[in-house]
């Protein structure tokens, strides 16, 4: 029984153990199913996409990338990629089958692991680097080329190579026939690649290049023309042409030019030539700037300094060259007729000899001729300067033919009739449209009085001394265009009888009017500033805003007494002698701007009737007032120092602080008796004769600072009126 019980106990225990084992295995199985890991579909899709998208790949590269894209993802049993048909660089869709390990599942129910991935795939065509280098080298090597030719050859060398997107050639600095290295950048099309990894397409190609020099035929022609002086003979002209040629073209590389001379005209004195210059360029070295035959034709005068003439007792035409001659070489030649003038290359008529470097001292071969001399019927067009032509021609009364001269090319008529005392011919028809200089043209031509009213003076800039000492001249020149004139100094000086209307003249560019009407003793015309309308154009007549010098302008213009109150004198620096001996002048000039004037010497001396208000004048820059009112018999105006406000600007009128010379200032100013005690005389050094014979003056100026005065001789001659104690004390200066 006991054994039976033991047996039952063993069976029971065994049964319990077995039951427990079964139960544990069942539990283990149940637990394993419940913890299966999920793999997210979208995550796998994104990793597959990322492995191939935005990349250019071949099929093989794309499949390899897809196959390896999930290597780092746990739970992947296998990846199978189907290869689609592929053409060069197309978007292709790959079917990718992803199989999970048994203890993994997809996060999406019933998903079978089939993915679709799109990639841009294709097969690269390879471009062989060495082949490209060889083709580039072959295009330029063993050839002599210019830079342009070498670059063109390199650019076209790869035209037959597939896969080339662009070729860029950098141009190096070049000199004639040197080996030069060009950097050539070759860019491939997108579906091609180099056979060498990491190659950037940069090639270096060496070529032997040269520079072909471009010759600008227009510039060369100008150089020929400027190099051939009109005073040259044919031999000298040919030498000049060769000089220019050799400067521009290397004669070692190109044959010298062929030069031919052909005279134009049949007369012995004809000086015009046509010069033909034929140049055949070495085309390996030079080229013309544009299509050109290489033949130049230049028309010019030669032997221009040769004068053709006749002499007493002979009918034959003689000639003599002015080159390397002096006035003495012409003294014994008794010329009766000039057939053709000579002229220099600058256009100046020959026959005038300047005796110094400044062209101030002049001798003329024409001044020795008798009154019967005949001048050329025509003026050569190459003559542009008639300067001094008839200078000092005192014996010739009839200059035959000159009235009909064509002067349209003449630019300089200065001194033309200067000192020609007896000249008085009709030259009204002359074309003066290109003349710029008429200075001294009729100076001392004391007989001249012909009509020149129609002259075109629009280009004249200098009329200084034009009618100086032209004692008889009194013609209407009111319509002259003076808009470009800058110098009118001395223009009517000693033109004793000139008194014509010039009220409309445009003087806006004139800077110098000194001596303009000096001793023009009857001149008394309206020359006030005014608005004028002429040919529909408005301008300001007698605009003096640019004038700097008015010294002696009306000196001894004893009749002048017109209103010039509106003149702009703001730039004038010199008014010395301006109205000296202008006996009749007594006009309001109170508003004149004198702020820049430095010299008022003798300004109103012997202006016998002048007694106008000038109390507001700004004299702050004046240094010299010597004899300013000498013999100004009527003047007695307030010229004391005072504060003035004009156009909102405050200044000190009659500020004498910079004056150094007051000698003779009021000498014989018979009625002047104004308070000038406030004048600043601290810089004055000369007061000699200042109030000599100023018989009416009787003001206290004892407070003047005279410490710097060195000369006070004759300061005042005692007339018994002026109190001694009111006079400056010069004793301290001794």
TrEMBL record:
InterPro entries: DUF285, Liste_lipo_26. It comes from the Bacteria. Pfam families: DUF285 (PF03382). This is Chitinase. It comes from Mesoplasma florum (Acholeplasma florum). The lineage of its organism: Bacteria, Bacillati, Mycoplasmatota, Mollicutes, Entomoplasmatales.
